[in-house]
Amino acid sequence: MSLLRYGSLLLLLLLSAQSLGAPRSFSVDYKKDCFRKDGERFRYVSGSIHYSRIPRVYWKDRLLKMYMAGLNAIQTYIPWNYHEESPGQYNFSGDRDLEYFLQLANDIGLLVILRPGPYICAEWDMGGLPAWLLKKKDIVLRSSDPDYIAAVDKWMGKLLPMIKPFLYQNGGPIITVQVENEYGSYFVCDYNYLRHLSKLFQSHLGNKVVLFTTDGASLGYLKCGTIRGLYTTVDFGPGANVTAAFEVQRYAEPHGPLVNSEFYTGWLDHWGSPHSVVSTAMVAKSLNEILAAGANVNLYMFIGGTNFGYWNGANSPYGAQPTSYDYDAPLSEAGDLTEKYFAIQKVIKMYRKIPEGLMPPSTPKYAYGRVAMQRIHTVVSALDKLSYSGPVKSTYPQTFIELGQAFGFVLYRTTLPVDCSAPTPLSSPLNGIHDRAYVSVDGVAVGVLERDIALTVNVTGKNGSQLDLLVENMGRINYGSHINDFKGLVSNLTLGKNILQDWTMYSLSIDQVLSQGLLGQTKTREAPQPPNLSLPTFYEGNFIIPDGIPDLPQDTYIKLPKWRKGQVWINGINMGRYWPARGPQETLFVPAAILSTTALNNVTVLELEEAPRSSDLCYVEFTATPILNATVQSEHKHLKPFSKEGGLGF
Predict the structure, then answer these.
(1) CB-based contacts of 256: which residues, under 8 Å, 6+ apart?
(2) Which residues are catalytic?
């Protein structure tokens, strides 16, 4: 009897141990039309945050504010090109530390819906695909093209093993993983490609992970965006017929949880169009309808953030997105609490308990005032410093990728082959300026050529005069059939009837030069310039933040009230593009973390068209208030919010 009792006790202890250490699980319950988390019915209320658009120092602040709003999950993209800017060279440090971001979300108590691509759209340059894929000119992106597949397999072979420890069943926060992104909106419709990705993800992550797809709430999108084995979800914005939208999902998934993977809290902007604003009341009303239907929802965006540097994307017909990705989201670009935040929190509170505790406040802003700017160099006068690789000669112009450059600027130089005593048209007959060229002859500014808008400019000069075009990459198309967006002079230029030949090209490493403080100053003189136009020129200014004032430095915004178009660096860090002449954005967000109270703060501006000519007006101003909705000069008519037809996708 004692042996029997001992055996029974041992069995009970074993069963108890198994129960205490029961494996974590997350799955789709097709019978009960829900998710199951550790066997219990589960519904997520999530918000989108892109770690690539927010400085690492602010990740915790933004995630805590999302948690305090009542969210139990976040959704984030992984931009491939952000981590592998050159083939085989991976960067997961600093602001790119994905593992730290995922662990932080887990520590705060937020689950994660991960969207690792390989294509993400996201109003991000080339939809997250690295530009070096275009070295094969005829590559078919997002397809079974062997060269594309080989690159994807290698990238995912690096990324997915990093992700695996963060899956929910492995003790991490990731509950679902998206395969590709809105593939039903892409023209290729390659089911073998989706099958390959599905097998690839499962091979690295295991067969217990919930893989899903996202497409617009229309049967047309589901035709090419869904395959067996990947759970189908839809996206739609406020004002949509919620019942009808979920009926589209039910066409592909007769059973399982209802999911809106992108419920739009706002909308994106384009240079030259008004700042998008979506009614708080409409967002709250539609969110309530979605939650009342028992559905899972992700609010896109909950915080937008900033396209620092050159990371913004563009839509077709070509219209680049600005530096700000504020998105009229519940948390502003700078992470400030808004009326929309509290309205959303109020709706969520009707369906789940809101965390108790102190709400992290909006970060303080400081107006440091005006900083006088002085001219230090034209691009041409600094060419020997800016072009590390030196000149490349070619009969016909080469693209950025052929020159081994992904972003920024390239100077194209040739000579006039004939006398042009009378104004002669310099033209891009095949619309080959990608995206904007600043033209000069013998050091005198002539005009601007711009993709889709300005294909001809008149020039004068003698046979042999030096013709320079500084070509700016303004961001690659991120959605639709034109994401293979080559930059630079992508077709020949003509002068009158002559095709221009014998080019010398200079790839410019401006960011590296400025980050290392190598630009310096010059006293070279330039030729007199025409009214309302000047050569692309660098300006510099410095300011001090006293270290005796408590709580400084603080976040701020830089405003360039009398400048036209260009790029700004602060302490060698690329803050992004400014274009107040076109709008709507007039201020650029400057995080406190890049400012110093122990050394001079440097501001460098590359003005591409015309700087203030009066020394009294040649300044930038640091202000405490953003301006994202200024009067605009419209060049394109972009589609209304939440529309994905004709080249707008999200």
Answers:
(1) 28, 29, 30, 33, 34, 231
(2) 182, 262
Q: Where are the beta strands (DSSP E) in 488-595?
A: 488-489, 494-495, 498-499, 503-507, 537-543, 556-559, 566-570, 573-578, 587-590
Question: Phi and psi dihedrals of 453, rounded to 5?
Answer: -120, -55
Two tokens at 77? 């993209």
> Sheet containing 456-461: which strands, arranged edge to edge?
456-461, 420-427, 494-495, 498-499
Six token digits for residue 648: 């707008």
All residues at 6 or more sequence positions from 241 whose CB lies less than 8 Å from its CB, including other chains: none
Alpha-carbon distance of 299 to 260, in angstroms, equals 9
DSSP lists the bridge partners of residue 331 as: 303, 337
Distances (CA, A) of 269 to 264, 315, 628: 14, 10, 10
- Enter the tokens of residue 300: 């896109």
- Tallying the residues shown for the chain, one arrives at 650
- What number of other Cβ atoms are within 10 A of residue 617's Cβ? 12
Q: Rounded to whole angstroms, what are the CA distances from 373 to 28, 289, 537, 578, 608?
A: 59, 53, 12, 16, 15
| Cα 267 to chain centroid, rounded | 14
Mean pLDDT (the chain) is 94
Q: Report the candidate in 541, 482, 117, 557 with the shortest Cα–Cα distance to residue 324.
A: 557
Instruction: Give the HSE-up count for residue 187: Cα atoms under 13 Å, Cβ half-sphere.
Output: 11
Structure tokens at 411: 């100077």
pLDDT in tens, 57-94: 999 999 999 999 999 999 999 999 999 999 999 999 99
Dist CA 421 CA 441 (whole Å): 13
pLDDT at 648: 32
Residue 469: name the closest of 504, 502, 497 by CA.
504
Burial of 243 (0-12, 13-18, 19+ CB in 10 A): exposed
Report how far residue 533's alpha carbon sits from residue 525's, in angstroms, rounded to the nearest whole number: 16
Q: Are 466 and 500 in contact (CB under 8 A)?
A: no
The C-alpha atoms of residue 560 and residue 587 are separated, in whole angstroms, by 7
Q: What are phi and psi of 524, to 5 degrees?
A: -65, 145
Global pTM reads 0.94
The Cα–Cα gap between 246 and 210 comes to: 20
DSSP letter at 170 equals G
Residue 19 has pLDDT above 90, yes or no: no
State the residue for tokens 């095709």.
Answer: 499
**Which residue, chain included where needed, has tokens 């990459």?**
473
Q: In whole angstroms, give the CA distance from residue 347 to residue 65.
A: 16
pLDDT in tens, 231-250: 999 999 999 999 999 999 99
SS3 25: coil
Q: Could you give the CA distance from residue 437 to residue 443 in angstroms, rounded to a whole number?
A: 15
- Any idea which of 276-280, 385-389, 614-618 has the lowest mean pLDDT? 614-618
Residue-wise DSSP of 538-567: EEEEEE---TTSTT-S-BEEEE-TT--SEE
